[in-house]
Write a structure and sequence with these properties.
alpha+beta, Creatine Amidinohydrolase, Chain A, domain 1, Creatine Amidinohydrolase, 2 domains, three-stranded antiparallel β-sheet, about 35% helix, binds glycine, binds manganese (II) ion
């Protein structure tokens, strides 16, 4: 349910250099070009105090993660770009968000610099990490006042190499110094291809030259090692370290406050013709105040919109008598996100059929949670939830077969009312570890430190003739964030009301204030 990023459109020929002129603004630029102006604006600035911070709490965790990657790729140079700004339209970009693998291995989150590159250089006994990034330009350059994309006058000062080295406890170098490593890339260089397409193109071009010279029949499309790196970096995140668990707890706590904010605004939300937008806005305010952003586009779905799984248009009204399905998560500054859904009655009381459906979904969620412990298979969680969904939908007379028959692999009639999965890993990405092998993910075995969602739902489309009219237009999902512990599991989001009675009391208490 994440938003789709557009393809990168920046200049592939000179990927580590800033654009020479701001995009599409040259014709309307009024920046003076006279020597007198340049000299004047380049002088008269106070010295900047250079304060080198102590390493942030995540630095030692990131170092341990890099050590594990090092063991997997002995003797190979590993290139892990942060990615770059992605164009939204004309001269506006989306807010920068580094690739999750880069954030994981550096500890650099919402404050990371676009275009940066982490390199793990092989040594006799492992790898040496260096972070290349564009440090702030001096006031003697024109970048700082004349470049709206990256200039200090426009977006604020970038940190110095020494500041970031201290902050992340990681050696740093100027971005331009990474160029030779890219241009001389050979078979011993492995790159995380998806992070920065321009850098990947550059590495591919260098490899092509080498292969033409030395290895003519090698297939340029063959990047097995690169793919292995992407897979291994994804798998490395399957088990969260203590820092990550702490950040996920913080993300869930902020998300809980965001849900409270929404309920407190219900009177205005109901009064507005686009009440769903007000829900989205109230939650987004909390996400920006406490964290970096939302971890994915908020789903604020009232009434039958709840049956549209990725309803992010959020432009409908919120009407008393409806249920609202709110699926939202705060992404904290380290970029870990919560992913929580609650479904609540707008007027504080579930209708009879709404409550029936709600309690079936809650029963499915609780049945799934009850089996979570180290050693079970990830896919068993889904099976436990589906057993309840099949049983209840059969009981209500919705299925043309028995619950047992529906659960057979070749049938699955109950899935008409819940076409999505029950669980996905959660972390830096809302759908975390997506490139992990099936053996370690869906068919994998749970281990302490894994964090994932449990999110069963039931969705009865307004025009579904297989269900009695009273079910039509009801959509319910309950989504919690679960940590596997040594002895079982912890529901990280249990403080957000879950039972029908508690949800009703929650809505009444907050919306009446
Ligand atoms: N909000 C995305 C999901 O639940 O997977
Ligand atoms: Mn989810
Ligand atoms: Mn969700």
């Amino acid at each position: 349910m994440e938003s789709q990023a557009p393809s990168d459109t920046t200049d592939a020929a000179v990927p580590t250099e800033p654009a020479e002129a701001p995009r599409a603004t040259a014709n309307r630029s009024t920046t003076p070009g006279s020597e007198a102006f340049r000299a004047y604006i380049g002088s008269g600035w106070a010295e900047r105090p250079e304060v080198t911070p102590a390493p942030r709490a995540q630095a030692s965790f990131a170092a341990a993660r890099r050590a594990r990657v090092s063991e997997l790729f002995p003797g190979k140079r590993l290139i892990i770009p942060a990615g770059r700004l992605k164009q939204r339209s004309n001269d506006t970009d989306y807010p920068f968000r580094p690739h999750s693998a880069f954030a994981h291995l550096t500890g650099w989150g919402s404050d990371s610099e676009p275009g940066s590159v982490l390199v793990l250089e092989p040594t006799a006994d492992g790898h040496e990490a260096t972070l290349y990034f564009r440090e702030r330009a001096g006031r003697d350059s024109d970048e700082f006042y004349a470049n709206p994309e990256i200039g200090e006058f426009w977006i604020g000062a970038r940190p110095s190499l020494a500041q970031v080295a201290g902050d992340l406890d990681l050696p740093t170098r100027a971005l331009a110094e990474v160029d030779p490593l890219l241009d001389e890339a050979d078979g011993e260089t492995i790159i995380l291809r998806e992070a920065d397409p321009a850098i990947t193109d550059r590495v591919d071009a260098a490899r092509m030259v080498l292969w033409d010279d030395t290895d003519g029949d090698r297939d340029p499309e063959d990047h097995e090692d690169d793919d292995r790196l992407a897979r291994d970096l994804s798998e490395l995140r399957l088990i969260k370290d203590d820092f990550e668990v702490g950040e996920l707890r913080a993300a869930v706590a902020a998300t809980a406050r965001g849900f409270d904010d929404v309920l407190a605004d219900l009177p205005q939300i109901v009064a507005n013709a686009r009440g769903e937008r007000l829900i989205e806005g109230a939650f987004y305010t909390r996400a920006r105040v406490e964290g970096n952003a939302v971890g994915y586009d908020t789903i604020a779905a009232s009434g039958p919109h709840a049956c549209i799984l990725h309803w992010t248009r959020n432009d409908g009204p919120v009407v008393p008598g409806d249920l609202v399905l709110l699926d939202a998560g705060v992404e904290v500054d380290s970029l870990y996100t919560a992913d929580i859904t609650r479904t609540f009655p707008v007027d504080g009381t579930f209708g009879e059929t709404q409550r029936l459906v709600y309690e079936a979904v809650l029963e499915a969620a609780d049945a799934a949670f009850a089996i979570v412990r180290p050693g079970i298979r990830f896919r068993e969680i889904h099976a436990a939830a589906m057993a309840v969904i099949a049983r209840r939908t059969a009981e209500w007379g919705l299925l043309p077969v028995t619950a047992e028959e529906a659960l057979e692999a070749e049938n699955q009639h109950h899935r008409r009312y819940m076409v999505h999965g029950t669980s996905h890993h959660l972390g830096l990405d809302v759908h975390d570890c997506a490139q992990a092998r099936r053996d370690l993910y869906l068919d994998g075995t749970l281990e302490p430190g894994m964090v994932f969602t449990i999110e069963p739902g039931l969705y009865f489309q307004p025009d579904d003739l297989t269900v009695p009219e009273r079910f039509r237009g009801i959509g319910v999902r309950i989504e919690d964030n679960i940590l596997v512990t040594a002895g079982g599991a912890e529901n990280l989001s249990t403080a957000i009301p879950r039972t029908a009675d508690d949800v009703e009391a929650w809505v009444r208490r907050l919306s009446a204030r």
